[in-house]
User: What shape does this take?
Amino acid sequence: MTEAATAPRQDQAAASSPVERLRAYLTALPEAAKQLLSAEITRAKARGEEVPGGELILAALRQGSAPAAVPPAAAEAPPEREEVVPRLMFRPLEPFLIDERLETKVRGRIMRASLPAIWTFFRRDLKPAEATSLEETCRAAMEAGDDARANQAIAAFLPMIRPVAEAAIEQSNGSEQERKRLAVRLGDERVRDDLIDVLTILSDLPTITAAIAKAPASIKNLADEGLANARAMLDPLAASRPALLAYSLALLQGRLLNRAHLARLAVSAAESDEPSKIATNPYRAAVDLVIGDIERATQRVSRALKEGRGDRAAAGIKEFHDSVRSLRTDMSLTGDGPWTRRIGKLRADLATLLSAQIEGVPGEVRRLIRPRQRSEQPMQPVAEEIVAEIEDRLELLNHCRTYASEIALNEITQRVFAEIQGYLDPTLTQLMENIRSAPDTDRALKISQIEAAVRFSAKIFGASYAQLLQKAADVAINSGKTQGR
Assistant: This one.
């Protein structure tokens, strides 16, 4: 059969492959469905969740949005035009952006994943002609190296977009049906909430930043004179435009070495540490921002554990502990108020997450270093990656013990630690006794078990004691070699 005859069949096979069928299906979707699917995948990636085939789907959605008859060079132009405007327009929002999706919306915190959906809403639904013109202007300005011209065009666009966007938000407040309709257009109810923040910040950024213009770039301890100075800066804004206070507080929090100290402003303004009194004051936004940070720390711990990043998990646990302790020190978080319930839920969530990581460690240690009987079948030496994984879990256990008071893990960490501690020492002693008379077929396994037990002991008993154990283990191993000869 000729090459010309087989080519159509090969083309047909390629076109009927699963990937090609998926691309064809995505290309045929309505534009609104494409935007919604793209926004959902982007948000999932921002939360740290894995989306199987996510990059392939996004690429197919972008490809499907381009006209079929456009040459390749021109087909790549629309994404470039779309990217430059939001990058410039939303650049002032950077101090307010977060990568996590909070359970409860916090004023002054905007999901980074919301920005593409907001720009699409502007461009597709509110001011399509003006947005297209803005894209052309900004692209031409950037190609010419004229950043000022691009910024001027965006500054002129914002007063046009804000009234129509606010009208859409106001209309959505009229009924549940209208609210759902706007959520569908934006792709998510939370994007609607973030849109309110975006419009406010972009319109009133000079006022928001001026409120803390005199604050130091780094504040080690927000107390005494520093606390009084912060109140003196922010009180005029709280009195004249309380709706903007949350955004100035969010900027101030970025300058605090201990971000949880922000809640002291709320306590000071209310002249009380009672949550019920603080909740009636505009400075209550400070407490919301701190609790939002606590929730973000919980999510970072979860993401770090999934990625196997023990260092990041430990940092998140410490941040959670320090923030909760600081908040409980400054406020009376007793009773059954909304803030108390939120912190209680976050503490329970983190405790459940960490318990699942450390409860099984004693069993893993036992299975790995259990002295084997001579009657059992020979086994391969303990794999390095398994030992390293258990070491990481033991390190996590130590961090949980250190900060157990604020994450409700006192009982489980003490029990798990004591169980491992009680098993390691006698088992290592037995392993060193057995190595002296071990047959050649078992020596490699037993040596690897001894080395693993010594490394585990360094995590449980400390490095100094582990060094003594290592010397004893070396003597036992060398003694076994001599007897074998």
Remarks:
- Strands lie at 97-98, 110-111.
- Residues 147-172 form the longest helix (26 residues).
- Residues 1-15, 66-82 have pLDDT under 50 and may be disordered.
